Amino acid sequence: MATVYLATDLRHERNVALKVLKPELAAVVGADRFLAEIKTTANLQHPHILPLFDSGAADGFLFYVMPRVEGESLRERLDQDHQLSVDEAVRIASAVAQALDYAHRHGVVHRDIKPANILMHDGQPVISDFGIALAVSAGGAGRLTETGLSLGTPHYMSPEQATGELSVGPPTDVWALGCVLYEMLTGEPPYTGGTPQSVLGKIITEPAPSARKQRKTVPPNVDAVVRRALEKVPADRFASGDAFVRALTEAGFSHGEEKEVVGAGPWHRWRRLAVATGVSTVVLALALVWLLTAEPPSRPVRRYTITLASDLVLPTNGRVMDVSRDGSAIVLAASLPGMPPQLWLRPLGQLEAVPIPGTEGAGAPHFSPDGASIAFRLGASLRTASLGGAPPQTLMDGLPPSDLTWSDDGFIYFTNAESGLSRIPAGGGEVEVVTTLQGGEVNHNVPSTLPEGRALLFTTNDETGTRRIAVATARPSTQHSVLFEGRTPTYVDTGHIVFGTVDGKLLAVPFDPDRLEVIGPVREVVPSVWTPTAGGLVSRYAVSDDGLLVYVPGGVVEQQLVWVDRGGAARELDAALPRRAYVTANVGGVALAPDDERLAVSFQGPSGDLDLHLMVLGERTFPLAQDVGNDFRPVWFPLGDTIAYISATADGNPEVRKVPADGSWEGRSEVVLERDAGVFEVQVSRVRGMMYFREGVTNLGRGDIGLFDRQNQIARERLFASDFHEKGLALSPDERWIAYVSNRSGQDEVYVRPADPSEGVPQPVSRADGVEPLWGRNGRELYYREPSTGYLISVTYTAGETFDVESREQLFDASGYATNGDGAWRSYDASIDGQRFLMIRMGVEAEAGAQAVVVENWFEELRRLAPN
Questions:
Q1: Of 74, 425, 498, 608, which one has the greatest count of Cβ atoms within 10 A?
Q2: What is the CATH number of the domain that holds 187?
Q3: d(Cα 53, Cα 377) in Å, to the nearest integer?
Q4: Which secondary structure element, helix H or strand E, spans residue 267, and what is its range?
Q5: Angle value at C-alpha 826, between 825 and 832, nearest 5 degrees
Q6: Are residues 186 and 208 in the same domain?
Q7: In terms of domains, do 180 and 284 share one?
Q8: Under a CB-based contact definition with an 8 Å cutoff, are residues 599 and 614 in contact?
Q9: In the chain, how many domains are there?
Q10: Could you tell me if 659 and 612 are in contact, meaning their C-beta atoms sit under 8 angstroms apart?
Q11: 823 and 787 in contact (C-beta within 8 Å)?
């Protein structure tokens, strides 16, 4: 990549190495980008990393300056001595691994580790050109092919580099270090050939060679380190340089096939005993039968706490983590403060998580069965990303999945708001509907498959907030059976369904996977698992095939009412909502009174039901309605003297009730409107006795807006005839316009249309997805939440004969505030002047979301706690 000159630094009177990029490469990279990226490496300070003195541009040449090292490179040493002693090879490799570990923790990958870039200074190795490949790659990797140059040296290139992947991570450096260690021990790189193409072909196709076969004095653990470092799949290599060093010093370390060769399990002990004592073949056979039929010994259950990722924040909604089937790694959807979420890989053998490139804005991650890839959602698309560093692939777009699972039958199953659950081949193809909504269900979510894709477990949800676990055959079918109340189901090989509850427990029940039936009682297996936010369907846990349980422990959740200004600055109100000792932060809506001094709010009480309360801001809070069941989605009558709300019981359809705002009825309320399909939203008109309402979700998966004349007890249903699901009803201050959410485009978007059904047609307002519309009381703005970005959006409009959007503005990131589970009814309100917003901030004591509990051999405990 460069020509190297011996130069003199005149200011400091010292010899330096001046490296000048080749002109054709400099032309592709560009000076500004190269110099900006190289700053990252200038801050690396480590005894085994050669520092960067300076960099710049002159007359079109790009250059960087490093110390001139008095001594030879490792390349020159190997050319002379051919092989090094085992001790020296291990010493050099350990020092280089420590330097790589330091750089990787600072987000820098070398990309070109080779003997020529390892300089020997007073007997100590130092890595040169650290991160130069990063600067070149970032500056112009997309056009490198035009120059005939490549990043990396063929004999030390990882499989992901050999296949042309431009975005590579720390595993690439681990591979190259494995190659260097192999060469120090045997005298040649692990893969050789007559041409670069033949070398790369072997790297991609041939298994890792054994150094012990070339040199018998290489210790088994050192050979195992090399073979693990040379695994084809990046996730199968060492998770960090520190893990590489520890393995070199661990005499018993083994890896892969050699583990069986050098092991001393029961079979090998019996074989040695037979040979030593001359036991007959019959006795040996009997011993083998005993070994095969005896009960396996119980393995100890071990618990420990890990930090999922330093300085990262877990989203408050949806699935945020998964564990690979072999239990070696966790994938997270998390974000740095003030940044959108992205996916992070957290190998359990590594102290820190590393970002997965190309996953900014992603959520709902799930490992592939082989652990080599991740499926995830991004906006309205379903995508997969190889952990080898290849760019993510889009499988499907325009049908936003809120959750998914990657089954070992070759399909990815995902939520489909229009029809329940769907599936698509993991390699891409046609989408098939698997389940459909029935019996008042709002959605199907959090899918999980049984082995070989025989059946599908998932959570059903209705608008009363009830979550139930159901099972269906995994082949396309509209039928499913509801099993019991709960959320986030997982079938495990012990013959149990493990699932979460509203109060943050993890339960298990014996289950017959052939008959798809529950065959035993429900037992508690973990007392406290985080199950966050209103409408949250997902308990934060994951289980590997070999019995590793990872879960986020539940904490005491505080629901804090805050004022948030248009720039995102938050200020707490004088009084918080009550603290509760369980973890579901279930909030059923907030509504400011016309005077901005009182607040109607529905939150979950000790009984588990949503109850309606009135809060006089800064003074006191008292209950308004405590009907049997859930009371939620309050709205104020125009005079501010009465509150209407939705009331739902377990055995009846939701209905509209009203209660005086002064609490004079002491919890007694009056039924206003009942409908056969249930009523789930209401808006009170200034015209006496008139109410707009939204009927329930029918078996067709459709919600409809109607108008109710309370004085004459006449309801005009299906005010706007539509075959789509309409929700999020909001009446404009002048009552000429209605805003609502519809899935007519294939995803939830905000629409506006005249309140008079004889006038106009629906007009889309949101640019992409949109939920929870709210009219500003100033008559100039309409607000909504944008799920794909998390932002609260302000739309400025003029409305005369037509509704005209003037501008849209992202106000602030609202992803840290409570939101409604299905994106319908708003969980926020705006002040009269529109300068601040009343939001509900969810907080967990001691930042419990950043910690996770790992339980090894958990199946042993599960069998004891929930015998089947």
A1: 498
A2: 1.10.510.10
A3: 43
A4: helix 266-277
A5: 135
A6: yes
A7: no
A8: yes
A9: 3
A10: yes
A11: yes
Q: Residue 161 falls within a domain, yes or no?
A: yes
With 0-12 / 13-18 / 19 or more C-beta atoms within 10 angstroms meaning exposed / middle / buried, residue 362 is buried
319 and 245 share a domain?
Answer: no
CA distance 244 to 71: 27
Q: What is the mean pLDDT of residues 467-475?
A: 84
Q: What does the pLDDT look like over 812-858, one tens digit per residue?
A: 988 778 776 566 778 899 999 999 999 887 654 334 346 788 999 99
Non-local (6+) Cβ contacts of 828 within 8 A are 590, 772, 774, 785, 792, 814, 817, 837, 838, 839, 840
Helix %, strand %, coil % of the chain (to 5): 20, 35, 45
Distance of CA 273 to the CA centre of its chain: 52
Identify the residue with better confidence: 664 or 763: 763
Beta strand extents in 486-531 (DSSP E only): 487-492, 496-500, 506-512, 517-518, 523-526
Pairwise CA distance, residues 343 & 353, whole Å: 10
| Token representation of residue 466 | 């009830």
CA dist 1 and 526 (Å) reads 56
At 115 the pLDDT is: 94
Q: Are 607 and 599 in contact (CB under 8 A)?
A: no
757 vs 755: CA distance, rounded Å: 6
Q: Identify whether 781 is part of a domain.
A: no
State the pLDDT at residue 91.
94
Most confident listed range (155-169, 332-346, 497-511): 497-511
* SS3 annotation, 168-228: CCHHHHHHHHHHHHHHHHHCCCCCCCCCHHHHHHHHHHCCCCCHHHHCCCCCHHHHHHHHH
Burial (CB count <10 Å: 0-12, 13-18, 19+), residue 563: middle
Q: Where are the beta strands (DSSP E) in 597-641?
A: 598-604, 610-616, 620-625, 630-636
Where does the pLDDT of residue 651 fall: very low under 50, low under 70, confident under 90, or very high at 90 and above? Answer: low
Distance between CA atoms of residues 835 and 776, nearest Å: 10
Same domain, 254 and 344: no
Whether residue 278 sits in one domain with residue 198: no
- Residues 800-822: b if buried by 16+ CB within 10 A, e if exposed: eeebeeeebeebbbbbbbbbbbb
Q: What is the CATH number of the domain that holds 397?
A: 2.130.10.10
Is the domain of 313 the same as that of 427?
yes
Q: Which residue, 213, 245, 262, sits at the end of a domain?
A: 262
Asked which of 244, 274, 294 is the last residue of a domain, the reply is 294
Instruction: Please report, to the nearest 10 degrees, the dihedral formed by the alpha carbons of residues 255, 410, 320, 396 taken in order.
Output: 130
Token pair 């070339």 is at which residue? 214
Q: Which amino acid is at 431?
A: V
Q: Are residues 215 and 286 in the same domain?
A: no
Tell me the C-alpha distance between 452 and 186, whole Å: 44
Q: φ, ψ for residue 370 (rounded to 5)?
A: -90, 0
64: exposed, middle or buried (C-beta count within 10 Å: 0-12, 13-18, 19+)? buried
CA distances from 594 to 525, 583, 638, 643 (A): 48, 32, 7, 11
Q: What is the mean pLDDT of residues 107-121?
A: 90
CA dist., res. 187 & res. 82, Å (int): 5
Same domain for 239 and 329, yes or no, is: no
Q: Among candidates 494, 548, 495, 551, which has minimal Cα distance to 528? A: 551
Question: Residue 508's domain spans which residues?
Answer: 302-555+848-865
Which secondary-structure segment (H or E) carries 283? helix 281-293
Residue 436, pLDDT score: 85
Residue 219 sits at the vertex; the CA angle it makes with 215 and 223, to the nearest 5 degrees, is 75
Residue 169 included in any domain: yes
Q: Is residue 19 part of a domain?
A: no
